[in-house]
Amino acid sequence: MKSVAAVLLASAAVAMPAALPSAAIGQQVGQGGELAQVSRHLKAMQSLRASFTQTDRSGQTLTGTLTLKQPGRIRFEYQKDAQLLIVSDGRALTMIDYQVKQVQRWPIRNSPLGALLDPNRDLTRYGKVVPTGDPAVVSIEVRDPKRPEYGVITLIFTRSASAPGGLSLVGWVALDSQNKRTTIRLSGQQYNVAVADSAFAWTDPRGKGPRR
User: Fold this and answer.
1) pTM of the entire structure?
2) I want to staple 167 with a disulfide (CB 3.0 to 4.6 A). Which of 50, 147, 157, 180 is the partner?
């Protein structure tokens, strides 16, 4: 059985646009049930807390804590020396760099993370099953063919009877419109725990007070 880490690394290549052989296409047609199961998981996952490890295409690694609350809210609390925070308020992603006192925002729908943060998104229109060679691992690639600038995300799950919808999210590989690849690996997942809305507040480094 392949390790989850091996599958995540392999998915970095899968996330790149490529033509699929007809045999693979046929296999995906027969795996519509997996797309439906992932949709059920995302709808049932009201909240999530987990540790994460983030690796970019240059090999730089950062760690931190992920907090997610549907619909649309997520917080990446990075290790202290990174002085970096990424927060979504349900409408836009905000990246706060405390080292240089810079704040950047962009709509969630313009990010590959939109597939994760919108549980009502129709995966049958935007997603396809990526074969993993391991029956315990489910991999779904999501992209909007009409909006290639939104990027691609490959979500990785393991089967778990105790997790929402019978799946546990273990990470993803995101490829943005500039072909910048980021791999996220999760551990210590806690599903559907109480998460206060205040968890997604942040302090503006430009001296404008707390933000929500």
Assistant:
1) 0.80
2) 157
